[in-house]
## 1
Amino acid sequence: MVEQQITPETLKNFSVIENERILLQIGLVITLYIEEAHTPEKREGLIQCFDDYWSLCGLELHQASVPHVSNRWINLDKKKLPPVRNWVNELSENHPWSITCTGSENTADASAFNMEILCSAAWEKDLSYVTATLPFVWFSNNEGSLPELLLKWCEWTSAYHGYAGIGIIPSLESNYAKKAEPMIYELAKRFPGLEVDNPVSHLLYLKDGIKGVNWLTVLGTKFLEKIGGRGYLKNQLTTEFELLDYKDGLVIKAGLQPQFGDIKNNNIPEHYRTISRLLKPIRVEYPVAIQHSHRNQPTLDKEGTKEWFARFD
């Protein structure tokens, strides 16, 4: 990657291609963590999120992984996806389930279209999550907005906490995702507004604290109360911030548009910094590295991860 050629403007249509494989893209990211998602109401909320994403961009999706139905990727161009509600409702609350859909025709390639749900079983007592991505320009060419989409999903799932904004989207195949890690590190270090996301790993450490902030930061009731409540946030923030309520919490919108920032030009998104400092008391002390170690290449190792979590402090 030639750093000099990368700017916040070029990131809007950015991807890294190596040996004919798309290793990463930049796009819009939503991730919500849900507590006790095994209950009928929250399980239904997760299904509603999936159905909503499918209605939004289902024609862009080409592959699906549904472990409960098949141990192989399902080619959506040749085979219809089994209705999610049908097979999920056959499962007991003590049966974990997941589904992943992607716009990649080859799952080694990173795609801007992804939807993943992991619902933990009741006995596991773990968080669950729903995460989705879209092209950066999606809402410039289609109806709706990222805040509207996020708020619906928060309402349906009674979101525990989460975030949405601009993120780095790697391949779903672990070997290719690992190969992209040094490039992800380089982008994350320079552009602080970019989310580095791996919910399946993060959820193990996010029961008692939030991961951090982005353009849209989700606080469920537990964390809203911990920070002092809606009134406290309203008093601390200017009119450039919006508080968007859902039944079990709120979403903090930091400015009119998501921001990349650019450390190279001493540009750290000030709205993100304000929110980060305000919510630092409820941010988790992340205990492990986000990335693997790579010989002679810096990555988000344990120390790098600690620095990245504190990038807006």
## 2
Amino acid sequence: MSLIKIDDIAKLAGYSKATVSKVINNYPGIPESTRQKILKVIKKYEFEPNIQARNLAGKKEKVIGIFIFDKGGLGSYFFQYIIALIIEKAEEKDVKVLISLIKTEKQKVRIKQLIDNGTVQGAIVIGATLNEPELENIIQDEYKLVIFDYKAESNSKNVFFINSNNYEGGKLAAKYLLEKNLKTIYHFTGQENKLPSVQRKEGFLDEIDGNGVICKVLKGEFQLDIAKNIFNQIIKNGEIPEGIFCANDEMAIGCLEALADNGINYKNIKLIGFDNNQISSLYRPRITTIGCNLDKMAEKAVEAILELIEGGSIKKNVYNGELKLYERET
């Protein structure tokens, strides 16, 4: 095995040690050309970063894993934003982060493997579906976990749940649109097997019910392009609603793009999204949205996983984000 060090890899690749470290730990935001150049050097010199060896040498590092359950990868603005915030909060506590993208059921065993071999000490899971038998096994086996937006039915002392208060958020979106005295309101929902999608839809419909509003639910799958294509067809059919609630900000952008493509002024429709990720305030027009304090949620995630790793006890194992309506230009 080569005795080459990370400093040598940095010099050979022509990048800083920090950039090499981010590539090794699969951090987002690294240009693909940079990533491939560094990986080529790593492969050529057979460099193997050995966390366990450093731990045995007395330089024990705390490493947490972020596991993203999603077939679509890291294309989601929400995933990118919350991951970046978790990394930031972890670095403030001198904790390293390893990111793993889980696309199949079989790959979920990585959580156990990486904790068992000492690569990470605990895991933060994002994007779980309503049916997760392998994740349930991992919970039962008492691995240290923080899970975002998952059915918080477990009283296990080894798990901490962080939820986006989805049901109440759906109700808040409906109240906002009803206050505008709208008579036709459409809802673009997310993936049917994801808790945020189900709860946001339930809250929205429960609040809308009995108000004499014509309401349609459309399957946008949390995807910008899908929502855009569906809304383009709706516009062509001449059935434009007065209001739209999208279960995430990306679908809201898709709807805005469909309006622009068809020469329709966005001001003709009241549009509200969900998540309040960074893109909602950067996009033009700026998107009215509902969301929790993602910075606080990331902070809670890091604090909770470190508390679990260190053997501490958490009295309440669920954190529900505090909702806020961000009224902007749409």
